[in-house]
Write the C-alpha cells for this entry.
Amino acid sequence: MIISPDRRDFSTILNILGSLILGLSLFMLIPIIVALVKGEQAPFLDFLIGFSFSAILGMFLTLVFPIKKEVSWIHAFFTVSLGWLVFSLLGAIPLYLSAHFLSFVDAWFESMSGFSTTGLTLIRDLDHLSVSHNMWRHLTMFIGGQGIILASLSILTRARSVALGFYIGEARQEKILPNVIATARFIWKVSFIYLILGVITFFTILYNQGLTAERSFFHALWLFFASFDTGGFAPQAQNIAYYHSFYLEIATIVFMILGAINFNLHFWLWNKSKKEIFKNFEIKTFFFTICSLSIILYFSLIKMGPAMFRKGFYQLISAHTGCGFTNLAGGELNHFPALGLLAIIFAMMIGGCVCSTTGGIKLMRLGIVFKSFFMEIKRWMMPFRAVYRNRFHHLQSLVLSDKRMKEAYLFFFIFLFTYVAGAIVAMGFGYPASEALFESVSATANVGLSVGVTSSTMPLALKLVYIFQMWAGRLEFISIFVSLGFIVSLFRK
Amino acid sequence: MKMKTKFFIFCLLFTALFTSFVYAENASLGDILASPNNFTGKEVQIEGEVIGEPLNDEAGVWVNVSTGQEQIGVFFEDKERIEEIIYWGDYSTTGDQIRVIGVFYKNCPEHQVSDLHLKSLKIIHKGYENEYVISPWKKQLAKILSMICLAMALIYFIKLRYGKRN
C-alpha cells in the first residue's frame, strides 16, 4: 500500500525544511564576516540580502507550518530532494547579485554545481571575483559534500527518529557507527582533521610560490574544500593550471583520493585495522580501473611525450575521483585523442567509493556487476546441482547476495540511462556526440570537467537539464523518485 | 652595377629569411589555444591583462595573462623583468595590459604544460584600482530585508519561549 499524503504531511515537511533553511542561512554568515573583514562593501550587501531572505523564509516556514505528524522516512526523502533544490536557489541569490552571471539561471547552475560538488561553472570574469563570493562558491562544495542535511542532523535533535531516512536520502548507503547522528559527527570530525592537514599543506606550497600569507590561506582553504569534497571549483579561471606547481598538483591528487575513499574505510583505518586498505573490495576495484584506464590513456597520449604523465594522469585521477580539477589550458581537453577522451569518460562514469563525496556509479556497484558476471560464468561451468556462493571483502567478508546484485544493477542502469539521455538532449541542440556525452556524464557524475559545452551561451533548456542531472546524480535518484511518487499519489486520491 | 644588384637581392632575400624566423605570429590567444598544433614552437604575440601575482619557479617566474575569455601562463626566465609590472588583476585591481612576444609550447619540454616562454614584454596600459559603485536599490533591499528579518527573529524567539511555557 502506498501512503497517500495530506496537508499535515506537507506542513510537517515544510516545517523541517524551514529549520534546514535556517541552518543554511547561518552558513551565509561566514562570507558576510569575510566581506566585512576585507572591506568588500557590495559583496557584503549581496550576502546580507541572501542571508536575510533565507532566514526570513526559514522562520516563516517554521512558524506557519507546525509539525502535525510524526516524521517518517517519506517525509525525510521528500525534504531531502526539495531541500537541495531550495538550498541551491537560495545559495544562488548572492552569486547572482555579484553581477558575474548573465542570468539568475546561470547563478542557480553555479550554486547547484557547488552544492552537488560538480564543479561545472558559468561564471564570467572569475579572476576579478571578490574574496567573499569565492568563499561562498567553495563553501557550497564543503556543505554539499558533507551533506547539507547531514550537517543539520549533527546539530538538530528533533528529527533523530528518522535520521537514517535523511542520511540515505542524501545517497549514503552505509552507517559507520550504529547511531546515524554519531556517524554524521564522525564524518565531520574526519573532515575537520583533514581540513587542518590540507590547509597546512596547500598553504606551505602556495606561500613558497610567492602568494601573500592571506591569499595563501584563502586559496589553501578553498583548494581543500574543492579537492577533499571532490568539487572542482578553483578561485582562478585557469583552475589548477593557474599555480604552475607540480607539488600542488601532487597534493591535490592526495586529497582528491582521500575524498573519494569511503568514510567507513577512513573509520576502519583510523580505529581498527590498517590492513583493510589491501583487502578492501572497493580499493581493489579502484586499483584495477585506474590501472586499466591509465594503460588506455598511455597509448592514446603517447605522442605527447613526458607531458602525457602530468596532463593525462592528472585528468584521469580528477575524473575518477569526481573532482574536476584541471591543469590544462582552456579547451585543451578537446584536443585529446578520442581514445583518451573515452578513458576519461569511463573514469567519470565510475566515480569513487560509496559513502564518500564522489558521484557516479561508484566502485562498489561496478565491482559487484563485474563479479556477478564472472560468478554467472563459473556457475554455468559447474555441475548442475552444485551450490556456489561468491564472497567479497568490504570491512568484513560479505556474501554476494541477489539483493546486493539487484541494487547494484539498478543503480548501474539508472546512471547509464541518465548519461545517455543527457547526451541525447545536448545532441538535439547540435553538439557533437562525444562532447554531448562527455558533458552529460560530467554533470550526472558530479565531476565538473568540461570540453566546452558548458558556457553561459549554451541554450537555457540545456542549462536546466544539467541542473537536473547534477541534482539527481548527487542524490542518486532514489529520494527524487520517492518524492515524485509522493506527488503523484496526491493526484490519485 | 651587376655586383650591386646581386648584393641588393641577396640582402633582400636574407632579410626576408631572417624576418620569417623572428616574426611573431599575431594571433589571438583564443586562436592559439583552439589550434595549438599550428603554433607550437613558434613565436607568437599576445595581449592581455596580468592576473593574480607572480608565481615562483626554480628557474624563473610565472605570470598569468588573461584576455577575459582565455588565460595562459607566461614563463619569465629573468625574474627581474616582473618589476616592470605594477598592477596585478584581482577583485580590487585591474591589472596592467601587456603585450607579450614569446615561444608558445603546446607541451612544453621543460614544464610539461601549455605555456609561453617570454622573449619581450611591453606594458600597453597601466592598470588601476577598481571602484565599485553600489546601486541604491541594493542598499534599500538590504535595509528592508534586514529589518523584516529582525522583526521575524523577534517573533520567532517569542514564539519559541511562549511555546516552551505551554
